Amino acid sequence: MARLPLLLSLSCLGTGLALVGGRALLARQPALTPATATDRLEWLQHWDTDPWRRREASLLLAARSKDPQAQRQWLRGQGWGPDPLAALVLKQDALAATALDRPETALALWRQLQRRFPGDPASADALYALGGDDPDKRRQLLQRFPAHPAALAAALAAGPEPAERRRGALHLARWGARWPGAEARLRQVCKEDGPDLNAQQRGQLAEGLAELGDAEGALRCLGSSLNGLGASGRLSLGRALLAGNEQQQGQAERLLLDLVRSAPTAPEAEAAVRLLAQQGSPAAAASLARLPPRWRDSAPVLARRILEAEPTDAAALDLLRRWPLDPASRTLQWDLVRERLLAGRWRAAMALLEAIPTDQLPPPLAARQSFWIGFTQQQLGEGAAARATWEALLRRHPGGYYGWRAAVRLGQGDLQLDAGPHRPAGAAGPGGGSSWRPLASGDANLDRLWRLDQRTEAWETWRHRRGRRAPEGSRELLLEGRLRQGVGDDWTGFGLLEQASLKLDGNQCALERELERSLHPLRFEAAFRAAANQGGLPMELLLGVAKQESRFTPAVRSPVGATGLMQLMPETASELAGGPVPESVLEDPAGNAGLGSRYLANMLRQWDGDPLLAVASYNAGPGAVAGWVNPQLRSDPELWVEAIPYPETRLYVKKVLGNVWSYQQGSVPGC
Fold this sequence. Notes:
Blueprint: H1 3-28, H2 38-47, H3 51-64, H4 68-75, H5 84-99, H6 103-116, H7 122-130, H8 135-144, H9 149-157, H10 162-175, H11 182-192, H12 199-211, H13 215-222, H14 231-242, H15 246-262, H16 267-277, H17 282-289, H18 293-296, H19 299-308, H20 313-322, H21 327-342, H22 346-353, H23 363-379, H24 383-396, H25 400-410, H26 444-451, H27 455-466, H28 473-486, H29 490-501, H30 509-519, H31 525-535, H32 539-550, H33 570-577, H34 583-587, H35 589-606, H36 611-620, H37 622-626, H38 632-635, H39 637-642, H40 647-665
Helix pairs in contact: 2-3, 3-4, 4-5, 5-6, 6-7, 7-8, 7-9, 9-10, 10-11, 10-12, 11-12, 12-13, 12-14, 13-14, 14-15, 14-16, 15-16, 15-17, 16-19, 19-21, 21-22, 22-23, 23-24, 23-25, 24-25, 25-40, 26-27, 27-28, 28-29, 28-30, 29-30, 31-32, 31-35, 32-40, 35-36, 36-40
Keywords: Signal
Protein name: Soluble lytic murein transglycosylase-like protein
Pfam family, one: SLT
């Protein structure tokens, strides 16, 4: 009998060593990813000797299945151990049991998850499920996981007692004003509970409304005093008011000036100064003169003064050399360069272009600067230097509008406007279509969730950890942009990726490559391919327009009523279809892409296949574009684009045709 404890100890030790050895073996095996074949995953789930690898295969298989019964079968027996993946298994098993109408099974799984993993983000869903009639569970959810989607959903559902509804609205204002349904709740509480709110609570609700752009709602919520509004709230309110009428813009300028003067060292002060410097009214100019000394001599204020006066190249060059990295310097540089290019003042343009070293600019601005340096060199009779500049541009920034124009100038390619396909053989193009790429966040758990195709869980984990803090810097913006794309939020995701591209420096090649891929994904391929074939167009042209028009968001609607992927006006769609087009067709990717393809084909026929005129017409209308046609369109099309009198159309043409070139080339940065 004395041997029995020893045998048990040896058995436990052997099991532990086997598990440790299994984890070491897993680390040496090829990682399982969404690209792993289904039959391979099924074999591993049944026969692999490593329990961690079997669990990873189970999660990937469950993620691929749409059948909750099959999901439960794949997940059976995988909720073991203290690893966070066990919490994820329990959560998904509970959700599948709920979908199968097995409430008792789901309840037991939620309780087990909450008991075993109280601090894991997956436990937020357990608290939400268990908190229906339990105020204590709801409070725990809001306190432990305030920014988690489950907490925001619980805050929105709070009620029916006024005090509970008010707490929910205040939570949404602080942690998730953009959560679907939050805006209506904030307005409701401001209106119905106004007399019972203190100044701080009114300020919190008003800041949430201002963040959503509802300046009038924020002011109504505040009443007669701004005392409850902190620096961040005043900045948000000022930004929202600037989008309003002339009276509201004046109110915004006074509010922003007061913010800077009362808190000149606050982080919000710099943003307020930049907003004031961008306003063109005399009142805004007067406000700049009343700023504290540290801001009166800042780059945004001096750049505004230079543009207001008869700008001298000497003053501008001094500013650009003092603050080459400041966004205001870069904006001033391009405004002045564009004026001189259109006036044919080549040497003045060159001096301004060379004032900021190209390698200190983010990639989109570096490509623009390189192209125009080459163009100016050519105008000055330095043909060999121009070719060398454009060749270097193509090596470093082969995609986008300026990559296209450099290739055309060098005789090394042009847009292909026939039906195609034109994507490089064997490539899904930048963005990879359905191909999987690592997240590379630097966080092992987040990267593992992404690798196992748990995109929603990865996004919820990131949101929980970030809390109220907005992403900062190119790396965080890229990461959140990709996570947003992963859960189907291209609208927000593309905005974040664009911000990231303007924060890169010349030494972040890996990030630049990932950004280029993420900025040009292949969405709704079947719909776009069919529409392209129907219209006799390259699919990449439709992708380029849709990315710029809607960020691939099928149900998006503009303030004037344009709808869907290609942002068609109902009247235009009816004309193209020969009769009324239901809203459901405009929101359907295939229906919208088909009508958009027909309209683009009409524009190309009208303008004899000229992509510049066709795309400009898609944005501004063919009537307006007809008045812009002149000989410069053929001799120097890049200058013709810069002379387009509508700034929106000018940018639109460059963005869309740059998208088309990037899609057709499948190019990533050459760094």
